[in-house]
Description:
Chain B is of the alpha+beta class. Chain B is built from 19 helices and 30 strands. Chain B folds into 3 domains: about 200 residues, Aldehyde Oxidoreductase, domain 3 (Alpha-Beta Complex), CATH 3.90.1170.50; about 325 residues, Aldehyde oxidase/xanthine dehydrogenase, molybdopterin binding domain (Aldehyde Oxidoreductase, domain 4), CATH 3.30.365; about 150 residues, 2-Layer Sandwich (Aldehyde Oxidoreductase, domain 4).
Amino acid sequence: MHNFELVTPNSVADAVSALSGEDAQPLGGGQTLIPTMKQRLAAPATLVSMGGIAEMVGVCVDDDGVMVIGGATTHAQVAADASASYPALAALAGQIGDPAVRNRGTIGGSLANNDPAACYPAGTLGSGATIVTNAREIAADDFFQGLFETALDEGEIITSVKFPIPEAANYQKMLQPASRFALTGVFVASFAGGVRVAVTGASNEGVHRWSAAEAALSANFSADAVPEAPSADDLISDLHGTPEYRANLVKVLTGRAVAAAG
Amino acid sequence: MPKDSGIGASSKRREDIRFLTGTGNYTDDINLNGQAYVAFLRSDVAHGTLNGVDSSAAAGMPGVVRIFTGADFEGVGGLPCGWQVTDRHGQPMQEPAHPVLAQGKVRHVGDPIAAVVAETAAQARDAADAINADITELPAVVDMSAALAEGSPKVHDDLTSNLCYDWGFVEENKDAVAAAIDGAHHVTTLELVNNRLVANPMEPRVAVGDYAAHNGESTLYTTSQNPHVIRLLMGAFVLGIPEHKLRVVAPDVGGGFGSKIFHYAEEAFCTFAAKAIKRPVKWTSTRSEAFITDAHGRDHVTKIELALDAEGKFLALRTDTLANMGAYLSTFSTSVPTWLHGTLMAGNYTTPLIYVNVKAVFTNTVPVDAYRGAGRPEATFQLERVIDKAAREMGIDPVELRRRNFIQPDQFPYATPVAVEYDTGNYDATMDKALALADWDGFEARAAESAANGKWRGRGVNSYIEACGIAPSALVGQLGARAGLYESATVRVNATGGLVVMTGSHSHGQGHETAFPQVIAEMIGIDESMVEIVHGDTANTPMGMGTYGSRSIAVGGSAMVRAAEKIINKAKKIAAHLMEASDADVELANGEFTVAGTDKSVAWGDVCLAAYVPHNYPLEDIEPGLEETAFYDPANFTYPAGAYICEVEVDPGTGQVSIERFTAADDFGNVINPMIVEGQVHGGLGQGIGQALLENCVYDENGQLVSGSFMDYAMPRADDLPNFTVDHSCQTPCTHNPLGVKGCGEAGAIGSPPAVVNAVVDALQRGGKDVTHIDMPLSPSRVWSAMNS
Amino acid sequence: MTSVSMTVNGKPVSGDVEGRTLLSSFLRDGQGLTGTHVGCDTSQCGACVVHVNGQAVKSCTMFAAEAAGAEVTTIEGMANADGSLGTIQQAFQDYHGLQCGFCTPGMVMSAAALLAENPSPSEAEVRHYLEGNICRCTGYHNIVRAIMAASGQEVPAVAAE
């Protein structure tokens, strides 16, 4: 990979300042960024590591019952520390990558990258979470803007993510057998005000909500209520699955998630 | 009681100690004084005219020592092909040049264009990226049928077409086979793809070239399964270095599976460049580079027809295969779809008439060559799939249909209609064993349990046979091999009684350092720890043809036995002298020489000492010292065989296949170390099941490799595979080698893919889906699509 | 170049690194600890797994500078104090859990992390935990048995007679 300067600030303020330089990029756990840099597909002049910013690490539930996860919290820590309060999200975190990847990869890094087959975008959108940055709060519905695109501005850092905790939720993931990303994954969350269904790995537009299923499940939260598979138009076609297959997975996994959520 | 040492004992592997403590010595662990690093600029298009290479900007970059292009290799030979195939019409195959660095054209993504040697690996990479190659892109030839069509672009402009050869076997049988098929009661036809694979040993390839100015000797450290073969090919055909001025060292090698047999451009480059710049030159492949430079495997498209009579007796078999060669002929590429494939089409059966046609095709893809099993998995897959389909069509139980056609134990030696003679075997025995171990009769209860969980359960069975112990030199010479395929060994006994065996076999995971001493220890009656194995260095081992084709114990082990027999014969003469007895009366057992009918004895160690301190010694009859070399050339191939059973569950909602049980009953003849043998079978099963369910090397229509990393090429993980039930208790020892061994390295990879596919088809049929075949890999998407088409 | 210091296998070490120097490279090239292997460039094969502050990480997907001040353990630090094989290492030999040896260091380090987290895992848990470690030789059968045995659980004999 090309060389760069590695900066390790201790505070969000210092990180923001370091990111104002030319070609500076934040470094979360690096589990996607470092392989990308090895392929010379990314060549930042400066990498600003989030790993040393203590205020960005941790999982807690605030007084309003909202789970707050620091942007630099690893998947392993979420899998462990969220399991009592939000088991579906903890289970999702525990299925990302593999144990060694989970010990480095962070929620902020995953969301900022917005890989169309990543797990966290489904959990975040499905929960109706709020992404908190050094500058503002962004609703998940506004945050994800297509393949590898988010609402983040240049130099903006995800400092935490706030998850309202649903009454019932579950994540179902069909593995892409090589990368172990989601060939398709569905996160279902049932709140007092209705059901949210978020789908990853299926669409050329990235993570998205399946509104037909949300409407049907809001009326009747049971696997039988899951509607017919969505249209295969604009779903991903690759050597691991056809659009029609992915459309089927969206339906099947939604049903299984509802059944497992109970 | 299991033995605790010698032949048949599961001795723990001594090599494990260094691998478990991080003290192994792999090629990338070797760093020489003054070493420079190389990075290659590789073609990023599949096919193009190379108009020129501008390295002026790169030349001035930090750390650059020298930049090489194709022009530097104009006076140098190309990479040779080791096997000339003669086509149906008696003509030699078309054999294009294979330059070390591209000259005039690039022919696959990854074709090396230029190489930068620099002070650090990063500087070499930085500079290689700054080289400007002027390439006019040409239409890529990717699909084999399209490559053979009239008017297709040609991969090699100087050849008449993209057809390497059109091979017919046995050509004289062609009309008789056609007649038998035309007149048969039933003909089952199947068209299938044997998916292209990437061997992917976990250690990527590495080469370190070195040159000693004081004596003009070149040394290459390389990740090879056969250092002597590399020395011969690179020295004689590419660089013109006499073998006595060239040393090739293959130290600890992290797996090969075929892909490290071949001589690669990077090996020749590092050796050449080290001499040119008078410094050691090192290249370490990345995994991404490995995907576009290591020879790939399989990639056959086949139509097979099986003719049967009303009782299910096989009457005739005909196959038509397109075999992908890639852009150049890799070292043994041409032999794989022909002599390693056509000769196995009889399988375990008495089919009297067989005709195999293979058209080998050039495409703008990475060269294709041997991968674990090499030709034999392709043969087994098509045969065992078409038998399964025939059983279903004729309403005959698939086990019964096979049994009706098995060669019977009293028919050995059995000459097949495809030019090989099986020495021994018992196919009903391994089938019986597999059925028992798999609890075949308990299947319905398990299927009911699966159904209660919403899954469809299916089972698949098949037999397999392979030709291993490669190979009789005289025979393969007639068939086009440009090398002999013997093996050699030197056994050196030290004055204090310890032995060193220098073998031409190479261990890259097979445990030779443990298993070979078990044989010597058994022969002499001493502790295994008194025997040391040396391999992998042309400077201190005799000539060797290396390790592939499950040949190490059958051929290399036999050479070692022959050398040890010479040692023992000589030692008996020394012992006879010391005991004042006749040679003929001396016996060796438990490390002691005795004279029959007397209480005279002399210890092994005393005889060895006498050989090196010949104070009281028959110098008039024999020389001092105790060191012997033997070359062993096998009389025939060996023929391991067996029966495999797979049970799967299919998730009807997602098409996901889960292997619930896998049983392998193999006949390997005699077994030296059961633990190692079982480990070899496990590994082969992992790769065979990987081919059946997961692995697929895919190019797009432009010749870009779609599955170019572990992100898209699905390697089997621990949770993709089941616990295996393996058995090797059915033993019909090989009749023509001294150990009665057959070889076990490839069996699992050969026998398992059809068992898996047969099982999945069975599960879908039981689930009410009329699916007769799905091409590998049986990914969830493919299974679901087959169910819902 | 900047200097970075850390503790490797209980010994303080330091060396000059670039920003892009990976921890795997620091260990192999800088410290001569060549037991840590690099088998891929997409963070999947796991041959490079080491422990950083007690956690398994892929050393090819972490910059050396990020390990500044950390406690790092590699395969070279896994033997007993007297040089004999540690429990997991010994189980790998006893159950033939390795062939070519290239993935083995990562396998042992991942197994150690698993058993620290879950001292008595089920077979399914072992297989699932090894998701990030690829072995091409063994079919995993004997790796799984070795790890089960290292955890003190009953495992069938290594090979049939």
